[in-house]
Design goal:
Two copies of one chain form a homodimer.
Chain A: H1 13-26, E1 31-39, E2 49-52, E3 58-59, H2 68-81, E4 85-90, E5 107-114, H3 120-127, E6 132-140, E7 147-151, E8 156-157, H4 169-183, E9 186-193, E10 196-205, E11 210-214, H5 220-229, E12 233-238, E13 254-257, E14 271-275, H6 280-290, E15 297-300, H7 304-316, H8 323-327, E16 329-330, H9 342-357
Parallel strand pairs in A: 11-12, 11-14, 12-13, 14-15, 15-16
Antiparallel strand pairs in A: 1-2, 1-5, 2-3, 4-5, 6-7, 6-10, 7-8, 9-10
Helix pairs in contact in A: 5-9, 6-7
Chain lengths: 382, 382
């Protein structure tokens, strides 16, 4: 099985979240480093996180590797004091010989905070599949790191392990925080409060994308391994109870045995579904089920003709799909990368699923018009 | 580090080749199962291989998992006798409820052969980056498994551990075998020889694709890990001698320290190059160097503007690129899948590199006109 956390730079937001959860459960000390501002086009954008422990372990990359050493050093007083710190790393080089916009130059602000109860509302929301926004004082007339957590319904949680934000700050930013939570974006704002001006970093934190793989054959292995590796929470569902052995799918977070017609119950608007049972009737029932769910991506393995047969058979049973439903079906499944090996087929499928969840088409970036990072990035005001 | 061989179905042709090499070196017994014919559109195509040992280990998937058990059984007499066997698996199901064209139905012919000296010419060619074709009797008036190996210059190697092909058979098929070797395709032909009619399976075997990653920062980790996982032979090259520690890049097959202007010496027509040194001058020298090589893919990390700066600076030094050279440059690097985490950036880069080596554009398969598998498949004659 892929150990996605063995290389710190291969760790995903899901890995970081799980490490945070385990630190909170065990009560062991930890720190979180977050990029809160970047000048120029960076390798990681604001909101990128790394979790650190006093033993020097770190998980997640906030630059391409150039800052992780200094950030490990920066975390040491945080373990000792429990107080957040912030540091501006100015890697600009006057002679212009260094890389442009690759995260090893530019100016990067990094906030390092203790793993304290200010994370509990975040972790609780992620556990139930909800988004949140953290609102954190990074400058001005409030203690550094003063925090509130805003849920998508506008509810505000305030931690007791550190200072709260001054009166009025959260109210002033609440609608924008809800928007950041819902879209997974960030914003920095300076808010005028009775106590003075406070600059807050608002960080929308979304649950990991989910992949629901339907099928019990060994070829689900490469797909579930790779999906987990790139940051999906992975469920393998099989119609064959005898196959639903978690040890057969070591990368899966959950292994289910179910009736194909019930598959849709396990998919929502964050779920990429891949149908690869190798059984036409099972795939047919599963397809009809997941197209009734909110799953934005439904990959169906097999040639076009198989999908046409499935459609005809469902139509004979009175099941017709709307245009909107058909638009969510990816068959033949995957991006057009031409690989024939099982792990290359998996690469093709997982890349397409991620692209569709991100609203992309999977073509080459060099041919893309406009910004690479798309519309989800919010520019900070000055 | 990713252990790409822990899951047999995630093993690549490169893994299979390396296991074969180690079995030949150690003299331990082994067998190779190869798909030699398929009726219908299958999960794996002819030429797909699995290597097996008497202990029941197997590496590589020749179907989606439905046949691997029977093939393990089929290999047992091969270990005992050293004689090849062939079996037709007819998984057709009359009631049409089973999957169409997903490799768990249809008719599949599997040849199981011993790991004997008939593989040595194949392994020697792959080790030097050359392609070969094996020509193997699968039916007719020749011993099953009788073999010759044809190199791309037409040279024929004949093993001593098993029967050779009847006189005239190799000569009749030699030009076609050279073509199969050069294109990585297969063909089956019935050849009339003095001894009678012999049906041969001609299997073009190509070396693994190569990825040459230029850069010594930790963000090369996710790229080299993932490239190795999907079947690339990976070299990490760095201009910083102090970074050229193989332990820093555990997935790399080779770690080099070199001058950027010499990078092109390590690239040929099978090499996908990724420039990610984060140093503009180094990337500039490396780019000019690899564009003089035959590398068909040169990914350059960073925004478009950085490439324009690099071009201007090279032009000032008198280095101008031809249209053909520019067509090989991928910048911004990667497929458009919208992921921002290091491992998602790696997914985007590795997918694009594989697509380009396969002559694809990386868009969605459902939008592709014509056959999914493209023009490299050769249909067997009857």
């Amino acid at each position: 099985m892929y150990q996605s956390t063995a290389d710190p730079w291969s760790a995903t937001a899901l890995d970081v979240k799980r490490r945070l959860s385990s630190l909170r459960e065990s009560g062991e000390p930890g720190a979180v480093a977050t990029v809160v501002d970047v000048e120029g086009s960076a390798y990681r954008r604001p909101g990128a996180k790394m979790v650190l422990t006093p033993e020097g372990d770190h998980l997640g990359g906030i630059t391409a590797g150039c800052l992780e050493g200094p950030v490990v050093d920066l975390a040491n007083p945080v373990f000792a004091s429990g107080e957040p710190v912030i540091e501006t790393f100015d890697l600009m080089d006057d002679d212009d010989e260094w890389g442009l916009g690759l995260g090893c130059n530019g100016v990067i602000d990094v906030l390092v905070e203790p793993v304290d109860d200010s994370w509990d509302a975040v972790l609780a929301a992620l556990d139930t599949g909800d988004s949140v926004a953290t609102v954190t004082a990074v400058d001005g007339d409030a203690p550094l790191g003063a925090r509130a957590v805003v849920e998508t319904d506008g509810t505000v949680a305030t931690p007791s392990d550190r200072a709260g934000l001054p009166d009025g700050v959260v109210e002033a930013i609440r609608d924008e925080a809800v928007d950041c939570a819902e879209t997974g974006t960030w914003v920095a704002r300076t808010v005028s409060a009775e106590a003075g001006d406070v600059t807050v970093f608002v960080d929308g934190v979304e649950p990991a994308p989910e992949m629901l793989v339907f099928g019990g054959q060994p070829d689900t292995g490469p797909v579930s391994n790779l999906a987990r590796h790139v940051g999906f929470a992975v469920t393998v569902a099989t119609a064959r109870g005898g196959h639903a052995d978690p040890e057969r799918f070591p990368a899966a977070d959950e292994v289910l045995s179910l009736r194909p017609a019930n598959l849709g119950e396990h998919a929502d608007e964050r779920t990429a579904v891949v149908l690869m049972s190798h059984n036409k009737l099972d795939d047919e029932l599963a397809l009809a089920s997941v197209l009734e769910s909110d799953a934005p991506y439904v990959g169906l393995m097999g040639p076009r003709e198989r999908f046409e047969q499935i459609r005809e058979e469902l139509a004979a049973d009175g099941v017709e799909f709307t245009e909107a439903q058909l638009a969510r079906v990816a068959t033949p499944v995957g991006l057009d990368i031409g690989g024939g090996e099982p792990v290359q087929i998996a690469l093709s499928i997982v890349s397409e699923a991620l692209a569709v969840l991100n609203g992309r088409e999977g073509g080459r970036l060099r041919d893309r018009e406009g910004a690479i990072h798309g519309e989800r990035e919010i520019i900070v005001d000055d």
